[in-house]
Batch of 2 targets.
Target 1
Amino acid sequence: MTTILVTGGTGTLGRHVCERLRSAGHEVRVLSRHSQPYAVDLREGGPALDRAVADVETIVHCATSPRGGDEQPTRNLIAAAQRAGVAHLVYISIVGVDRVPFPYYRSKLAVERLVEDSGLGWTILRTTQFHDLVFRLLQALSKAPVLLLPARVKDQPIEVTEVAERLAELAQGAPAGRVGEMGGPEVRTFESLAESYLRATGRRRAVVKVPLAGQAYQAFRAGGHLTPDHAVGKRTFEDYLAEHARRSGRRKG
C-alpha cells in the first residue's frame, strides 16, 4: 500500500481522484485549507505542510485557484516534497497553456516549469476543460435575458471522472514526464453547447455571438486550447447534462 497525498482533494477533480486511489487500496491524505487532519494553506506552507508530506511516496497536485497565482503554493509544496524525499509528483494542467496568453493559463504553465525543474520524479497531464466548467459558465451567462457568447470560439469539454481515472493510474505508476493529452470526445462550437444547455434546463434565451478583442481571445478562436488528435474522452456534454438532471431530480425528491 502506498501513501499518496492529493492537494485540492475536496475539489471538483481531487475528490474523484481520492475515491479511485482509496478503491485501489492506497492510504490517501486529503490536503486542503479546511480538511482535517491535513488542513494546510499551500500559500503559507510551514510545519503543517511538512507533517502532511511526511512519509508520502506520491503527490497528486490538483489544488489551483481560478484567479491564478499558483506558483508560490507550488514552490512551497515542492520544497516540502524535497525535504520529505517524495518520489513522484503528478500535476494536472490544461491543454494550450503554452499557446493561449490567458493569465490563468500562464500561471499553469509556470507551475509546469516548476515541476519539471524540481528535481523530483514528475508526471504532467494536460486535459481540456471539464463539462462542469462549461455548465457553470453557461449557467452564469444565461441569467441575463440574452446569452452572450464569444464569437467563433469552440471547446472540447471532457468528463472529470475520466480525468480522475487517468490521474489515479498515473499516480500508481512510475514518473512518466509529460504524458499524452486528454481531450473530450467532441470539438463543439460554444453556440451548440449553449443550445444543448438551454434545452436541458428548459430555458429560453436569445443567443448572440460577440467578437472580442485581445491576444487571448485570438488564441482561443484559433483553437489553441483544443486537442482534436487526442479526443480520448467518452462522455459527451449531453451525457453530462442528462446525469446532472438525474442528480438534481434525486436531490429534489
Target 2
Amino acid sequence: MTSAGPARDRLLQAVVEQLAGHGIADRSLRALAAATGTSHRMLIYHFGSREGLLAEVVGVVEAGQRETLAALTAEPGTGPREIVDRFWTTVSAGARRYGPLFYELSAHAMQGQEHARSLHETLVAPWIEPLGSVLERAGLPPAAARTRARLIVGAARGLLHDALVTGEFTEADAAMSDFTAIALPT
C-alpha cells in the first residue's frame, strides 16, 4: 500500500462491491481493474499487489461490522438482548450481499493465505471485549461474560452461514431469536 486518500478509498469500495457480487476465486488484478473501471497499475499503485488489495478488503469488511457493534454497545441503557437482536438484524441484512465474501476470506485465513493473515487477530478477539462488557453490565462475571460473548459470535456466524447456504433467512432469524432468549440475560 503506497497511497491514501479519497480516490483510494473509492477504489477500495468499488473492489469490495465487485468481490461481494462475484467472489474472489483466482481473479487477477487485471480482471478486478477491468470490473471496477480502473487499471491494474492503479491497483498496484494504491495497494502494492493483489494480496495487499485483498488484505485491505479484509480490513474494510471487518471494520464495518465492528463499527456497527460499537455504535450499538455505546448506547446507554440498552440491554444485551436488544443489542444482540439489533446487531443480528443489521449484520444479517448485510450478509445477503457481503456474507459470501466474508466466508471466502475466512476460508483464506484458515488456509494460511498471507492476505487473510490479519483475520487471525480480527475475526474473533475484537468482538469478545465489547460483547463481554455488555454482558458484564448485565450481571455476568467477567470470565463467564467472555465465554458467553464467544458463544454469541459463534452462533451468529453459524446461523449466517446456514442462511447463506440455504437461503432460509427467516428460519435463521427465528433461530437467533430463540438463541438470544436462552443465552442472554434480560
